[in-house]
């Protein structure tokens, strides 16, 4: 049984990489809840005043926490699964929004308490407790913005979001290096990798994943 998680900045191709690896390893893919997420468009389009009044960042993190908890429990129970982002990465987004003042200190304490209880339950599972590998997608900030633009989700395109994207991007490597402890990490340079349009890149990524897994 093999469980992989795919992580990295918004827009860098986590879903494409997860689908590629899932297909080649004959694994099910658990997708991040985006298209059916009722809060995400509100989070991206709300004014500062609306964010303060409606608490969209806190609600969004609770929503993601719930859906990622459900996904990882199912992935650990079944065999050969790939998660398009996972519960391990969720804390980083909550922390960034707390540091930006979008999530209050009280909300962050509540969030961390809930996350800690969920992680205790994962640690106590009788069948699985950690992924085998995280595939971390890394790129320059210019590539991040370019790929967010190519993806074309209207609510992600507002120029007012650039500072938010930059803040996320600036701290991502530090989170991986200092906070992610669940498994080994395979770093993929997305400045030089296009698994959708370049078959050689796709083959190289799959080959490297297989090598790290000992397959």
Q: Could you please describe the fold and organization of this structure?
A:
By secondary structure, the chain is an alpha/beta fold. Helix content is 56%, strand content 12%. It has a 5-stranded parallel β-sheet, with helices on both faces. Helix 1 (14-24) crosses helix 9 and helix 4 packs antiparallel against helix 5 (87-99).
Number of domains: 1
CATH domain topology: Rossmann fold
User: How far is the first residue's CA from the last residue's CA?
Assistant: 12 Å
According to CATH, the homologous superfamily is: P-loop containing nucleotide triphosphate hydrolases
Molecular shape: globular
Count of helix runs: 9
**Could you tell me the number of beta strands?**
5
Produce a short descriptive summary.
The chain has 215 residues and is of the alpha/beta class.
Chart the SSEs and their pairings.
Elements: E1 3-8, H1 14-24, E2 28-30, H2 40-45, H3 48-54, H4 56-77, E3 81-84, H5 87-99, H6 105-123, E4 133-138, H7 141-151, H8 162-178, E5 184-189, H9 199-213
Helix pairs in contact: 1-9, 4-5, 4-6, 5-6
Keywords summarizing the entry:
215 residues; alpha/beta; Rossmann fold; five-stranded parallel β-sheet; 9 helices; globular
């Amino acid at each position: 049984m093999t469980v992989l998680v795919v992580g990295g900045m918004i827009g860098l191709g986590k879903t494409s990489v997860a689908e590629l690896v899932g297909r080649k390893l004959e694994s099910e893919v658990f997708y991040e809840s985006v298209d059916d997420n009722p809060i995400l468009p509100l989070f991206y389009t709300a004014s500062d005043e609306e964010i303060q009044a409606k608490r969209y960042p806190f609600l969004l993190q609770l929503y993601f926490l719930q859906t990622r908890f459900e996904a990882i429990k199912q992935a650990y129970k079944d065999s050969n699964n790939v998660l398009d982002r996972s519960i391990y990465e969720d804390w980083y987004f909550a922390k960034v929004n707390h540091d930006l003042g979008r999530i209050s200190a009280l909300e962050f304490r509540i969030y961390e308490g809930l996350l800690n209880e969920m992680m205790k339950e994962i640690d106590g599972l009788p069948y699985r407790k950690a992924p085998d590998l995280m595939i971390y997608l890394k790129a320059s900030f210019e590539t991040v913005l370019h790929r967010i633009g190519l993806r074309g989700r209207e609510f992600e395109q507002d120029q007012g979001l650039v500072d938010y994207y930059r803040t996320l991007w600036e701290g991502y490597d530090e989170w991986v290096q200092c906070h992610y402890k669940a498994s080994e990490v395979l770093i993929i340079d997305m400045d030089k990798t296009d698994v959708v349009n370049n078959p050689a890149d796709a083959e190289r990524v799959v080959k490297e994943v297989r090598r790290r897994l000992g397959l």
